[in-house]
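Suppose you are handed only two things: the residues of a chain and a line of SMILES describing nicotinamide-adenine-dinucleotide. What would the bound structure be? This form records exactly that question and the answer produced for it, so the two can be stored side by side and reused later without any lookup.

QUESTION INPUTS
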Amino acid sequence: MTDRLKLAFVGCGAIARFHLDGIQGHEPRIDVTALVDLDQDKAQGFAEETGGRVFTSLDTALAEGDFDAVDIMLPHDLHEEAAIQCLEAGKHVLLEKPMAPSIDACDRILAAAKKSPCVFMVAENSQYWPEILEAKRHIESGAIGDIITARAAFIYAFDDYWFKEARPWRYEKGRTGGGIAIDGGSHWIRPLRMWMGELKEAVGVLGHPLDKMEGESLARALFRFESGATAIFDAMMIDTTFAPEPWWRVTGTKGELTINAGLDGSNLWLWDKEHPEGKELFASAGYTESFGPELSDFTSAILEGTELAAGPEHAVGELRAALAIYRSVESGKWEQVWE
Ligand SMILES: NC(=O)c1ccc[n+]([C@@H]2O[C@H](COP(=O)([O-])OP(=O)(O)OC[C@H]3O[C@@H](n4cnc5c(N)ncnc54)[C@H](O)[C@@H]3O)[C@@H](O)[C@H]2O)c1
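ANSWER OUTPUT
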């Protein structure tokens, strides 16, 4: 087996920049040898940096390109077809979250992955976010005692960076599968699962304060975990000014951990009897630091046969949580996440 991985970017939009920065800063074993995008200029921009070959269709890239793995970064409604096509062509597949907009589509992708000898991974970068991993270590070492509850607050003043007019698909429910709970919300739900174990059920309400967005731009939900512990999931993307607030707060019998974060960095704080004013435990560039380790996990699984930090079946959990919230809005009741 070779010690290098030839990778094709399939979709060269906003998140591709973060993936390439992660590779350049963290994963020297990857050569990006193909760049696929309907928009040739976008692919060309990355080709100039990587030396890879430009393609404007996945069909042509699979027929003529030189790569062993693909990193699929397409709108959600295109995930299923592209992932299955690449798995059937014998490529290892890294697929941006969510796996697909519906459980049926996820099941079809998982079935194709089971038939393939290749690695299939869903890219959920919060699995590798330094403060979240550091919080997990402190929780496991008993820093805050037994977890009682937590709050994940995806509170994001509307900023068109991820939602530029060039990406109108993110406003369309038919293309994303819903709204912010299914989309950015996954990055707030995964850490709760990492710290508190598996989700059992959810109940919530949705709102639409952002006129442009067809799906919800407000989701406020309660989660109950298999352990019996509960957490609040708050997701708000509104064109307003928010007061500062931790993105995560984990409350235990001995104290609390909080993570304050933004796209430009994050920090982890401990609050307990010895530190009633709080103590900073860790700080880093945060979110942007998560993509390098994510790409490394995928690369090591292919080149060394190591186990993924989170397998693809596990990665359906965030989608299931969002769908359970949506169902609960209809039923007015708690809904099972893994029904
Ligand atoms: N991990 C994160 O923090 C994070 C952040 C943003 C987006 N994402 C995910 O990344 C994925 C892409 O999101 P984005 O914000 O980069 O979107 P984007 O719209 O910026 O990029 C998508 C790209 O796909 C191209 N494209 C569309 N149809 C195509 C086709 N048929 N063939 C080839 N190229 C095609 C578009 O031209 C565009 O360049 C989504 O799954 C999204 O949820 C993850």
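WHAT STANDS OUT: The two ends are 41 Å apart (CA to CA). The pocket of nicotinamide-adenine-dinucleotide is lined by residues 11-15, 36-39, 42, 58, 73-76, 78, 96-97, 125, 162, 167, 183, 187 (CB under 6 Å).
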